[in-house]
Amino acid sequence: MPALLLSTHGLRPHGRLLVRVTAPEWQVDAASEDAADRPEVQRRATIAASEGATVLLGASEPAADRSSAVAGEVIAMSAEPKRVDFAVEAAVAIAATYGVVSTRPKVMHHSNNVVVHLAPAAVVAKVATLKKGEQAGASTARELAVARFLAERNAPMVPPTTILPAGPHSADGLELGFWTYCRHDVNDELDGRAAGRSLAALHKALEGYPTELPPFAAQVEHAAAVLADEPLPALPRDDRAFLADLLERLSARLDTTSLSARPLHGEVHLGNLLAGAEGLRWIDFEAACTGPLEWDLTGLPDAGVEVFDHVDSSLLALLREVRSCCVAAWCWRNPERAPELREAAELHLARLRRRHGRRSRGIDV
Question: What domain count does the chain have?
């Protein structure tokens, strides 16, 4: 099959996409156009629950001996094949313009983003499919900037790739970045204390980050806006009112609490920590922010929290409830998009109902 020549700059067709090419000319195997076949296998993400830690979403790829992919096949995790297919096509197409040809792309995770391993290359693409335009571009750029800063300081994290320009890249309204593939086993049981030590090392590397990051409170405000303004058809009206009221009261307590501010990962949970061959490695810096240490500790089990000195236990308890409200709000936006979103949505709502019931006054944390 003859090679396809993609010329410098401008928009060029690639499958169903128009890809903006900004690199020098590359000779690309035209077979890569057919690499993103429709998803054929459904795989669930893991939701890891631990007592005392906020339960969040996490997903990763199985060990090589438990995964198999025929060339050209894509392993998808749940519904919405068109959205996933389009993201995979964009990742494959842009990588191909830089000479990286993926013949068996594998979707590792998708919820707000589609994360695809561009096998056989040791490259992972993270494609923003829900955020649009400048918002998506700014989020991807910030995540890559934070990751580059951490990589330069040898932090325990998965860095952007150096096999091709990491980005951010654009294709037909999608924004994406490219990352180093970290082989790991989704079934590895992570040690809580080891996770805490790894997070402490990450925090140390984040000290002195030179660019302004959004405050953690922006995440809380976004969750409140979701509960106030978005349709949320899957969330019963009384549950919606319960979550909105609880988050409002929790936020009021935060407003009267003295809070420190330091650079944070922003979305700490064990699903964002990979047990790679060289040790534990953090991923997903899209929510990097500033705030109190305790905001990041909400996603650690108690054994991990014990690694840190001078933890405000009262603030940690309050922020765990806030985080749980936020995750519930985000997951109820469209719980049918992926099974793990439905499970997390129901889990957080049930947890908050057990702890706070239907009371309209008073907060027990």
Answer: 2
